[in-house]
Specification:
2 domains; 3-stranded antiparallel sheet; transmembrane helix; 135 residues; alpha+beta; transmembrane; membrane
């Protein structure tokens, strides 16, 4: 009789520990998933940087994970820069309309291409956390 009772209690202990470990694993997994999905992204405060070795900082705003309102300002009068494309040399010139000061040149394509490479650089720095050193 003792042998039968010990087997039953031993069986309960094994199933109790199994239930306990299963609950522990499920709870850990659930907390990890909640942390991934509900943690606030730290890079949303990253909204200004000197990119592509330019003297003028670029400014932007975040819309979730996308960049919107990307622009640069004049270093002298703080006016928004406008662009002019040179199709022959694949260059985009950014200049100030107020003081006619040419601020920067981005080589390699048209205006859309220049915006793309600037956004790509912003997302790269945000992804690896390199921007924290700049701010």
């Amino acid at each position: 009789m003792y042998c039968i009772i010990s087997k039953i209690t031993l069986g309960l202990k094994i199933s109790d520990s199994f239930i306990l470990y299963t609950l522990l694993i499920c709870t850990s997994f659930t907390l990890y998933i909640c942390y991934i999905f509900f943690s606030k992204k730290d890079y949303t405060h990253y909204t200004k940087d000197n990119l592509l070795n330019t003297q003028n900082p670029w400014y932007w705003e975040w819309d979730k994970e996308n960049i919107k309102t990307l622009h640069s300002k004049c270093s002298k009068c703080d006016e928004l820069l406008v662009y002019d494309e040179n199709y022959c040399n694949n260059r985009v010139f950014f200049y100030c309309p107020s003081c006619d000061n040419q601020e920067m040149i981005i080589r390699g394509g048209n205006y859309k291409y220049s915006q793309y490479i600037i956004e790509r650089e912003i997302k790269r720095k945000a992804g690896i956390g390199k921007y924290k050193k700049v701010i």
